[in-house]
Design goal:
Elements lengths: L7 E5 L4 H12 L3 E6 L2 H13 L4 E5 L5 H15 L4 E4 L14 H28 L4 E6 L13 H21 L4 E7 L38 H13 L4 E3 L5 H18 L5
Parallel strand pairs: 1-2, 1-4, 2-3, 4-5, 5-6, 6-7
Length: 272
Amino acid sequence: MDDMNGKVVVVTGGGSGIGEGIVRAFADAGAHVVVADIEGDAAERVAEDAERAGAKSVAVQVDVAEAGSVAALADRAYQEFGEVNVLCNNAGVLLFRPALEMTQADWDWLLAVNLRGVINGVQTFAPRMKEQPGEAHIVNTASINGLFASPITTLGYHTTKYAVVGLTEALALELEPEGIGVTCLCPAGVRTKILAAERNRQPEFGGAADDDSDREALLATALDPRVVGDLLVEGLKARRRYVFTSAGVRAQLEERHRRLIEDLVATSPDGQ
């Protein structure tokens, strides 16, 4: 996708953090943006900022864990603009809780937002994108923690983000021959509100809880979300399968793949 000017971009979780950074980057690149967020007032604020930057923009309150809510988002986007050129399945949550303390509601919440939210976006938008005449691209926000495990983050988050990486890689094999590009966004530390994600925890998953304010130091030196947005725009122009936000994780990635290859060779019957 060489030129973002006039393209229509839908961003879930667009009311803050990485989503807001993505919205601003696409708006500055000349795109029209649909800002979707579970916090409607936050979506309105970001959409108004995009309008002031010269973009056509609408705000939609959406719960990505609910298929019907995502379907309503798609209806609104197509009613307003007639097509969607880039879908950013970006909404996500984080829960700091050791594996043995995770409740069923904890698992259900993380899986519903981080994984089912992406699935809902793909299932809802991809068929329409396939039929439209304009260019089409799907971006799924995973995490660097979807590629290797870290003691800083917890089991539930890792599980969902590994799943998003696998989903995205398999989706690319299916959709790219159909003319729909697919990219996996794998950010490292970014200054967002994800540490306070439980503020929006839905009642069916246990309801809202206090912020993890004692963990704010974890993001003290994290990346500005707008930088992530700019990297994504450039990544789409370059048709990248993956977009990373830091080369500082190279050692961890190399170590993971070194162990994979070593154990493959050690346990394969042919030793190769």
